[in-house]
Automatic annotation (TrEMBL):
<dbReference type="GO" id="GO:0004364">
    <property type="term" value="F:glutathione transferase activity"/>
</dbReference>
<protein>
    <submittedName>
        <fullName>Glutathione S-transferase</fullName>
    </submittedName>
</protein>
<dbReference type="InterPro" id="IPR004045">
    <property type="entry name" value="Glutathione_S-Trfase_N"/>
</dbReference>
<dbReference type="InterPro" id="IPR036282">
    <property type="entry name" value="Glutathione-S-Trfase_C_sf"/>
</dbReference>
<dbReference type="Pfam" id="PF13410">
    <property type="entry name" value="GST_C_2"/>
</dbReference>
<dbReference type="Pfam" id="PF13417">
    <property type="entry name" value="GST_N_3"/>
</dbReference>
<dbReference type="GO" id="GO:0006749">
    <property type="term" value="P:glutathione metabolic process"/>
</dbReference>
<dbReference type="GO" id="GO:0016034">
    <property type="term" value="F:maleylacetoacetate isomerase activity"/>
</dbReference>
<dbReference type="GO" id="GO:0006559">
    <property type="term" value="P:L-phenylalanine catabolic process"/>
</dbReference>
<feature type="domain" description="GST N-terminal">
    <location>
        <begin position="1"/>
        <end position="78"/>
    </location>
</feature>
<dbReference type="InterPro" id="IPR036249">
    <property type="entry name" value="Thioredoxin-like_sf"/>
</dbReference>
<keyword id="KW-0808">Transferase</keyword>
Length: 204
């Protein structure tokens, strides 16, 4: 298998970390959807990161879809997705909030960095900013309310996604999402980023 995409994308990084947690063999190709667009298009004409190229050459897109597929290849342990209904519901909520935060972070970054200044729409940015802060406020409450993993082998896909999302937003928009207002998220992310699988899969 090959994982295509840059690790500065939280979507690519969450898949790479989960692949390692599941002990699945893969090759990572750091191909950019921007600077190496044509190279990416030769692999996947849709040019969407992450792209997983299966052993038979077929491409799978979207980080969540990729993880769902990968979970079928892994053994019973470690388990990427919980099976008990209450645990599965909480994991789904954490994942949805974290991915929403990633999406809103990306929207603000694209608006600021890719759109000409005279065409930027500040009311839209403010709306997205409100959504971003709401997602992290909800995540902070969720993280504060439950016991989270402290060892690498305890992490599942939801835990990885929360940690990766927070690190991504802090890398891109630290002036918007204040660490001091999210102490539980900051502590959890710091713990995660110190684990070997995160250290060897850096975002930058």
């Amino acid at each position: 298998m090959k994982l295509i995409g840059m690790l500065d994308s939280p979507y690519v990084r969450r898949v790479a970390i989960c692949l390692k947690l599941m002990k699945l063999d893969f090759e990572h190709e750091s191909v950019s959807v921007f600077s190496t667009y044509d190279q990416f298009a030769k692999i996947n004409p849709v040019v969407k990161a992450p792209t997983l190229v299966a052993g038979d050459g077929r491409c799978v897109m979207d980080s969540t879809v990729i993880l769902q597929y990968l979970a079928t290849l892994a053994g019973p342990e470690p388990r990427l997705f919980p099976t008990r209904p209450d645990d599965a519901l909480r994991a789904a909520r954490l994942t949805g909030l974290a991915l929403a935060a990633c999406e809103k972070t990306v929207q603000i970054v694209y608006e600021r960095n890719l759109r000409p200044a005279e065409k930027q729409h500040e009311p839209w940015v403010q709306r997205v900013r409100t959504q971003l802060l709401a997602a992290y406020a909800e995540l902070e409450r969720e993280v504060a309310a439950a016991t989270l993993p402290t060892r690498q082998e305890q992490f599942d896909a939801a835990d990885v996604t929360v940690a990766v999302a927070w690190d991504f937003t802090q890398m891109m928009l630290p002036e918007i999402v204040d660490k001091a207002e999210h102490p539980h998220l900051q502590a959890f992310s710091a713990l995660a980023e110190a684990l070997p699988v995160f250290v060897e899969t850096p975002a930058k």
